[in-house]
Amino acid sequence: MDVNPRSIELAEALNQSCHCIAVDQAKLRSALESSSLTQGVYDAILRDRPHLFSSSPVFLARAHLDRIARIVAALEEVIASAPFQEWARSFAPPIAHADHGPRGVFLGYDFHLGRSGPALIEINTNAGGALLNAVLAAAQQACCPDVEEVLGAATAPAALGEVFLAMFRGEWRRQRGDVPLASIAIVDENPEGQYLQPEFLLFQELFRRAGLHAVVADVATLRHERGALRAGDQRIDLVYNRLTDFTFATPAAAALRAGYEADDVVVTPNPHAYARYADKRHLTLFADADRLRGWGIPEETIAVLAAAVPRAMVVDPAHADELWRDRRRWFFKPVDGYGSKAAYRGDKLTRGTWDAILARPYVAQEIVPPSERTMRVGGREVPLKLDVRAYVYDGAVQLTAARLYQGQTTNFRTAGGGFAPVFTERA
Known about the structure:
The chain has helices at 5-17, 25-32, 41-48, 62-80, 82-89, 130-138, 145-150, 160-176, 197-209, 254-261, 271-277, 283-286, 289-294, 299-308, 320-325, 351-358, and strands spanning 21-23, 58-59, 107-114, 117-124, 140-142, 151-153, 183-188, 213-218, 223-225, 228-231, 234-236, 238-241, 266-268, 312-314, 330-334, 344-345, 362-366, 371-377, 380-393, 396-405, 418-425. By secondary structure, the protein is an alpha+beta fold.
């Protein structure tokens, strides 16, 4: 891949000093409240989620965006291989063994920008924020035509609604063929209380405009009866799954689990997709060149991953003393973790937290420090950490966005932080 150092230098300079593109608040309100279903969403975000959206974009060199796409392709190549699937199946729960066809909507490939380029931090199967980020990107406004001629959103946001609809219809066809799709439920635990609840309403509106019956449902209210999954009186054809109960193990998910296991409902993403992509033990494999070579993975693919995936290992209590002494170089994540919960930088660990880590399955990943974006907050210029998320479906990057934050991990509690669209130089 040809890399233009000046392009990378320009992006770094813009992240340190450019505030010439900002959110057009009137346009954002209009996009968020485009139907009666979403009336009041904009004001609710300002009131209850003031740090959901950053006020300015993040700048990435096109070379880094191209590199992210290549890393995603390399990871997908490994994940599609028979040896990897056998390995992943060996520790997946039984509910994850059956492949019903769907690939899983909105895979989130998360990256830090290290010294040598994008570095994979993790893969998630329930990556929220894609539709919110599409709306946010469409509401950006440059300060003058000269800037607009040089820089643009990395992903054209106008067409993303149709892309997302096509993805859900594609998931349906993978399991049901030509049978018409009629109804979708966006499902989570206590959806009204979820931080990204505004996005549920946006998806409900998107589906309804496409002629589908769409509801937002609490998983505990679903019923599985007479060969169908139901939300109230409505039979549900497809569940857009936003749960962090990845294997439907809780009592609240009993009906969803029964419907999924009986093949009475299409679920995306589902336990099979989670076992295939998001178990954190996979991170230990992607940078293991010897293992990949033994599996017959091409050298070119191994080289891409060796440069992009930090070393990781399963935390073995037998080596606890060694890991503790060297803890400053590691980031510790629970095997079944999500949303940075119970994840810790080694240099922040206490002995009590370390003992808790040793009591459950964890992986340790070499730390790749995040890059920074300087934001204007309260009249001051404040450096915020950033990570980059590629929303991926069936191996293709649909949307690239960033998250800005302070602290150990992304948190949506930082003034000036939150979701930020990614801008790059125009081709």
